[in-house]
Structure formats: C-alpha cells, structure tokens
Amino acid sequence: DVKVTQSSRYLVKRTGEKVFLECVQDMDHENMFWYRQDPGLGLRLIYFSYDVKMKEKGDIPEGYSVSREKKERFSLILESASTNQTSMYLCASSTGTVSNQPQHFGDGTRLSIL
Amino acid sequence: AQKVTQAQTEISVVEKEDVTLDCVYETRDTTYYLFWYKQPPSGELVFLIRRNSFDEQNEISGRYSWNFQKSTSSFNFTITASQVVDSAVYFCALSEADDKIIFGKGTRLHILP
C-alpha cells in the first residue's frame, strides 16, 4: 500500500531556529510536494520536486527551502523560523505527470513556532 | 488563472441525510483534471476521485457520487445516507495540463448522530 511518512506529528520550535521537516515515500514516486494548511486558506503549495535534486517554487516559497538528495526523501527547511510559519505541514507524492495524477499524502506535521 | 471555489465553508447534517458539497472551478484550458480529497480528523488527505475534462460521465462509488457539468464549471460531490464516519474536511482540486494542482479552501462536513 502507498505510504508517505512525515517524521513528526507535532513539533515545537523557537523563533530563529533552523527547522527540518522530513518526508519519506516508499512508492518510488517521481514527484514530491510540500504544502501548508491554514484555517480558511486551504492547502497552499510551498515547493515541489519532480526528480532527484530538482525543485520548483510553489505559491508561497518565501522563508522556506527544500532538499531532494534521494528519490524517496524530500525535506522542507525553515532557515530561520518565525511565528507566522506556525501551521500544519503536509507532504505528498505522486507518479507520472505532476498535473494529472492523484497525490498521496502523509499524516501532516503540526509545527508551532514560539 | 485557474481557481477553485468551495462556497460552503461548513455544513452540518443529521446522520442518514443526503448532502451535496459544491465545487466550482475556473480555467481557460480545454484539458484539465478535477479531484476530490477527504481529510478526516487524523489529518491525512485521502484521494477520492479524479476526472478529466473530456469525461463528463457522472460517477458513483457506493454512497458517494460525483456530478461533473462543464456547462456550469461544477464538479459536485454527493454523499447519500450520510454516516458519522463521513465527518471530515473535503477538498476539491483542479489542475491544467502541465501545471500543478490547485486546491479549494475545503468544506468541513459534520455528520450529527
């Protein structure tokens, strides 16, 4: 069965810290995505990757970076965490063309920045 | 620019009632894809259905059905004989060819026992 695993369900960090959110998929999918979900705003795409070492900006990349050194792992990095980055973060993966294939999601990481 | 509107922010119905979740989309492309996802309280989004723009047939899967109407740019989702386990946030999403998926803001559905 399809499995996307996010390293933490809950995470609390302090302002200014460098934060790493990890995501691993076991389906050999080419595409991986990072979203944030906020009340009233739905899901917003931060970054995505369609191949190893490739990355593309989504709608709200500011304050974030990503790393995809291996096909199965896609990391989201908050270089210097700020309180407005408190949110639910969702990782997803898909195969084939980015646009037309369903995405498989992890359970999410609820990140609080104090 | 593509856009997805889920006008219903929150809906509450009593168990066993039917409920329809609305989704209206905007796109200039003739080739596009529509999706529905369910997000239960556990947090993980679960894929429910994908429909491409050339396939206007309605779909039924158990108590779930989808009505795709290009004339009104709508892709509505109906749950028949709702159950408490249907309580979740439901997202409609759209993608155009060679472009990323855009999600609506979601509809939170409460099924009351």
In short:
The complex is a heterodimer of chains A (114) and B (113). With 114 residues, chain A is mainly beta.
What are the SSEs and their pairings?
The complex is a heterodimer of chains A (114) and B (113).
Chain A: E1 4-6, E2 10-13, E3 19-25, E4 31-38, E5 42-49, E6 56-57, E7 64-70, E8 73-78, E9 87-94, E10 104-105, E11 109-113
Parallel strand pairs in A: 2-11
Antiparallel strand pairs in A: 1-3, 3-8, 4-5, 4-9, 5-6, 7-8, 9-10, 9-11
Chain B: E1 3-5, E2 10-14, E3 19-21, E4 24-26, E5 32-39, E6 46-52, E7 59-61, E8 64-69, E9 74-79, E10 88-96, E11 102-103, E12 107-112
Parallel strand pairs in B: 2-12
Antiparallel strand pairs in B: 1-4, 3-9, 5-6, 5-10, 7-8, 8-9, 10-11, 10-12
List keywords for this structure.
heterodimer; A: 114 residues; mainly beta; 7-stranded mixed β-sheet; 53% strand; B: 113 residues; 6-stranded mixed β-sheet; 4-stranded antiparallel β-sheet; 54% strand; globular
Can you characterise this structure?
The complex is a heterodimer of chains A (about 110) and B (about 110). In chain A, about 0% of the residues lie in helices and about 55% in strands. Chain A is an all-beta fold and about 110 residues long. The radius of gyration of chain A is 13 Å and the shape is globular. The mean pLDDT of chain A is about 95. Chain B is mainly β. Chain B contains no helices and 12 strands. In chain B, the strands form 3 sheets. In chain B, strands 2, 5, 6, 10, 11 and 12 form a 6-stranded mixed β-sheet that branches. Chain B has a 4-stranded antiparallel β-sheet with strand order 3-9-8-7, with no helix packed on it. Chain B has a two-stranded antiparallel sheet with strand order 1-4. In chain B, a hairpin with a 4-residue loop joins strand 8 (about 65-70) and strand 9. Chains A and B meet through strand 5, strand 9 and strand 10 of A and strand 5, strand 6 and strand 10 of B.
